Model the fold of this input.
Amino acid sequence: MHLMYFTEQPMSAYASAEGLKFGATALLFSNKHFDPAAGSRLYNEYIEQYVHAEDTGFDGIMLNEHHNAPFCMQAKANIFASVLAGVTKRVKLVMLGNPLPLAENPVRLAEELAMIDMISKGRLVSGFVRGGGQEQLATGVNPAYNRERFEEAHDLIVKAWTQPGPFRWEGTHYQHRVVNPWAVPLQKPYPRVWIPGVVSRETIVWSAQQRYPYIALNTSIEATKKIWETYDKAAAEAGYTAGPENRGYLQRVHVAETEEKAIENARQFMWMQGEFTGLAHPVWSSPSGYFSPTQRRAFVEFASGRAVSPRGRPSFEQQLEDMQIIAGTPRTVIPKLKRILDETRPSIMALWANDGAVSHQDSMTCIRLLAQEVLPALREHGDALGLKSPFEADAPVSIAYSKDLRKVAAE
Amino acid sequence: MVAVAWTDKHVDVAGVKMHLSRAGKGAPLLVLHHDIGTLERLPIYDALAQHFDVLVPHHPGYGKSERPAWLRSVRDVAVMYRWLLADLGISQASLIGLGFGGWIAAEMASMAPRDVERLVLVGAMGLKPPEGDILDQALLSYIDYAGAGFHAPKAFVACYGEEPTTDQLEQWDICREMSFRIAWKPYMYSQTLPHLLGGVRVPSLVVWGDDDRVVPLSAGHLWASRLPDARLEIVKACGHCVEMEKPDAFAALVTSFTDGR
Done:
């Protein structure tokens, strides 16, 4: 198994009453409430926590980015990946990921990621995302071309990584006279690409077609099984059999020395859910053209308050019950995490451990307890289930580098 | 008012199946709808059909017209309408551009000055307002945005009902997506159009609601100053959608303008 540590890097140091008063804590919620002194402290605490995760035994650190919202203060994942490339020695730097459509110049992304890969001596996992709807609005990028830009930027980056330059790129959204970056990845053929997601069927199918592992972001057990069905079908159509090496899962889990403390801190996961899915307008998170046309009717009903959120908004207690959130001491969380593994069979697992206003000290304790007491049990269980990570399975980086494809009957 | 018989059909332009409603007799009048699309029939369409051969197409990608995946700009839409008029054998038409449709009409008038009989712009988008900004629907719900087009809430209700239907919401989303595809950045205006308006050869009527919350009135003054022979008419107690909120006043303005009064 590949076991990694994740936090959204919450910017919880603002007066929460202000957000409630404004009625939104994203996009238009004023950054006058952002305190850079607290920001400086938090960024440095997060670096310390990541280093602690490496020291105590995590395999990887998962990074992401968001814009204009307190729930995540990482505005550019490549900056944190660059810092960690220098200050860590062993962990994989798993970026889930760079929002490709937001890039006006994907070649620059290819350069930055190649630099991170070289500085980290080949520890980069370069995930890519479409970026949430609000990210498009926050960065001025046209949501209606989100998927086109995602796919084209991906193709351009992979070409820049794998084909010697110079070459010319005349695409729909990107045109480059000269692509010839003097920075190429250390890992060959190119760094592994993992694709995180929540619901979008098109992204699941696309990932399977590329043979990129799909990382289900804290989806329910039932939804996760459906994701694998979709993925496996697309994989079979592409000529290979998907296995645990194609599957990742992100789980909210907080541990502490006592049950009471763990539950108290785990309530902070609700902070983020309030921020993210509770206090923003639906048309910000799903601008027209951003979502699949098949979802149009359901979305307009939700956006106008005529239907409940497709994601629902279960209570904290309900989420504990459904294991959407797991909290406790190592002894009590291990059986639950094993059940998640039994049910969803991922070989890549991200533990989303600290959120909201959990203190630095409690975050450090949580990381230590997870690494020292929980991870060994998960590894053992994963081995028994045959959950080999892409690294352990030596899985091909993409479909283009697969040597085991079956011939697929022409349609 | 004489009962008006409308015919609806599909016409093929640039490989795109476009929806066109047509009624009335007289000089041809092309009516270009808002960014929120158009209702199938409106009292103003009937009123205009008493005097003109009225053509109400759905813009490509809006309403019942197919979405061309390749379409990238509002000027492209203007070219498609030139093509449509040519196919219909109409060498000269008057243009009424409503809001976003005003931008398309102005593009048409500037690119082919001799093909326009009269130009009427209503709360037209297309120019950067000297003061204020064009209301950004990307930040607003469907109903709030459509509602912002009216001065009196009851005028909105008269058109769309107390609770717009889910079908209508879906339509607004389709329209919004297409507007994003062709007018995302800069949002709803052209940086070059102001320099090209001097080529327009016909009289223009610029109509603005005094309570237009979608396109600031400052843009109305700019249109009137940039178009060579333009008159600005401000309609009292009226929002952006003058043709829906004050159809009688608007019809009177149009007919007197085209009659040369």
